[in-house]
Design goal:
about 525 residues, alpha/beta, TIM Barrel, 2 domains, three-stranded antiparallel β-sheet, 20 helices, binds flavin mononucleotide
Length: about 525
């Protein structure tokens, strides 16, 4: 028995246990959601307005189906890929994310260390909570660091960042061009996520529910936009004033003249804009809609890869982000013509779930998935994957449409008919059951009303009174009810029986009380009696 079944060893460390039970990015997302206060999780997971673009980004990758090549001898498949002057072990880059230390105290340093361990580039955001020089100092000179730039209204400040990044040995500058105004993040507004926070009751409850998160956060250095240290404090809300709606191509020309390293545009860059960037001497584009966090309903970057590649030719670098959640997405991006995929939420979920170790876990999972996808596809190298890419993919929609057009077989039609019949019968049974339940509940409710003796309605029975206010009443309960009779005080309404039944009902506990008297009472007593009902 022992040789057949082995008990899995469970690590004692809670974080190792948590990460060890995550087998894909969706698992890491769930683990992060459990660990992190809701407003923080929503800041990462949420997007702009109706969050259509963020879902569409993921769907765009998932809309492709593979047409693998078999018997290709893929035991030694090589996943390495050239990006600029480096050869990456897998075509992955860690993208820029603002306010990363809010997600976990390891923050940007954790992300960059994990990237360096995997020999991948890490991109530091302008809005980072770790400064340009501090990050370089933490990861050492060998780590490949890129810097993401928001060209703000204060050009002196922006150029200062560019010069500092160059001096600190950052090798690529990624200029984000989809943030001319701030995105409308509805979840953040609802949660009151701002600096200083405007706490709602729900936010306070979620804070109270995660004390360990708050302890870690509050015992570390205070959260701030580290690249602007020494300047007047900025808030998330004031961030909107940062961005420059006048940003245009001449700014990009100036940056080209200033920045000595690789220069990329990051945004929903279409084929015409990508060509223009190439003509201005840029080194590449990072196709992105900011993970749906800026203009909602922007085209999914995955759908831009092929047209952009066609417009710029083979030697211009094309990266893609927004919606990468699986190694198969990376393989699709490359098959469509990208040089590498850039990660955003995919590694942030790992960071939130377990700091640096969580980012490691995310990168290991994606690397493994990418490798096995390549092997399943029958590809032995990334160059081969890119060369045969178009033959390896087909749109799922196209297959579905063809299937729908074809006439279904007789057996299939019969199957549909039976299914429809079954569904309709089930629906009818459901409705009947619902009506029955509602009637039963209503009857029980009415009965209990009478049981308390506080209802109004028709009484039954008869009685007669004499003198002033004393008499006999007789009430008969309806369906299964009890006889109620005895001397009662007259109701003064001329309905002694009615009052008798009510009087009894009032003095009888609900459970043992008779059901609502039926029959009519009027006319049974013609003489009005006066008196008080107990
Ligand atoms: C929490 C968060 C913060 C981000 N901050 C920045 C930023 O400061 N600068 C930037 O250019 N992009 C930023 N992005 C966008 C990412 O670089 C990337 O484009 C996006 O996350 C890709 O979408 P995905 O996460 O759905 O894959 C941020 C994304 C997230 C989720």
């Amino acid at each position: 028995m022992r040789s057949l079944v082995r008990l899995r060893t469970v690590p004692l460390d809670a974080q190792a246990r948590r990460l060890g039970s995550c087998y894909d990015i969706a698992d890491l997302r769930r683990a992060a959601k459990r660990r992190i206060p809701r407003p923080v999780f929503d800041y990462v997971d949420g997007a702009a307005d109706e969050e259509i673009a963020v879902a569409a980004n993921v769907a765009a990758f998932r809309s492709w189906r593979f047409l693998p090549r078999v018997l290709a001898g893929v035991a030694s498949a090589d996943t390495s890929a050239p990006v600029f002057s480096s050869t990456l072990p897998v075509p992955l880059v860690l993208g820029p994310t603002g306010y990363t230390r809010m997600m976990h105290p390891d923050g940007e340093i954790g992300g960059a260390r994990s990237a360096a361990r995997h020999s991948l580039p890490y991109t530091l955001s302008t809005m980072a909570t770790t400064g340009i020089e501090e990050l370089r100092g933490s990861v050492g000179p060998a780590a490949e660091l890129w810097f993401q730039l928001y060209l703000t209204r204060d050009r002196v400040q922006s150029y200062d960042l560019v010069d500092r990044a160059a001096a600190a040995g950052y090798t690529a500058l990624v200029v984000t061009v989809d943030t001319v105004v701030a995105g409308n993040r509805v979840r953040d507004l609802r949660n009151g996520l701002s600096i200083p926070p405007e706490l709602t009751l729900a936010t306070i409850a979620s804070v109270a529910a995660k004390p360990s998160y708050w302890y870690q956060l509050l015992s570390g250095p205070s959260l701030d936009y580290a690249n602007f240290a020494g300047r007047p404090r900025t808030t998330i809300r004031k961030t909107a004033d940062f961005f420059d709606a006048d940003l245009n191509w001449s700014d990009i020309e100036s940056l080209r003249a200033r920045w000595p390293g690789k220069l990329l545009l990051k945004g929903p860059v279409g084929p015409a804009d990508a060509r223009r960037a190439m003509e201005l001497g840029l080194d590449g584009v990072q196709l992105s809609n900011h993970g749906g966090r800026q203009l909602d309903r922007t085209v999914a970057p995955a759908d831009l890869i092929a047209p952009v590649r066609e417009a710029v030719g083979p030697s211009f670098t094309v990266l893609v982000d927004s919606g990468v959640r699986h190694g198969a997405d990376v393989a699709i991006a490359l098959a469509l013509g990208a040089d590498a995929a850039v990660l955003g939420r995919a590694y942030l979920y790992g960071l939130m779930a377990g700091g640096t170790a969580g980012v490691d876990r995310a990168l290991d999972l994606l690397t493994g998935q990418f490798r096995s996808t390549m092997q399943f596809l029958g590809m032995t190298s990334v160059a081969e994957l890119r060369k045969h890419g178009p033959d390896l993919l087909t749109r799922a929609g196209a297959l579905l449409r063809e299937g729908r057009r074809a006439k279904p077989s007789r057996m299939r039609r019969r199957h549909f008919l039976w299914r429809r019949l079954f569904v309709r019968t089930a629906r009818i049974i459901y409705v009947i059951r619902k009506v029955f339940v509602i009637t039963a509940v209503a009857a029980a409710w009415r009965r209990s009303r009478w049981g308390w003796g506080c209802g109004r309605g028709w009484g039954c029975g008869w009685g007669w009174g004499w003198g002033c206010g004393r008499g006999w009443g007789y009430g008969r309960g309806g369906r299964g009810g009890r006889r109620l009779s005895g001397p009662v005080a007259g109701s003064g309404s001329g309905a002694g029986g009615f009052s008798a039944s009510i009087a009894r009902a009032r003095s009888t506990p609900a459970s043992s009380c008779g059901s609502r008297p039926t029959a009519q009472s009027s006319g049974v007593i013609s003489t009005s009696v006066s008196g008080s009902t107990p």
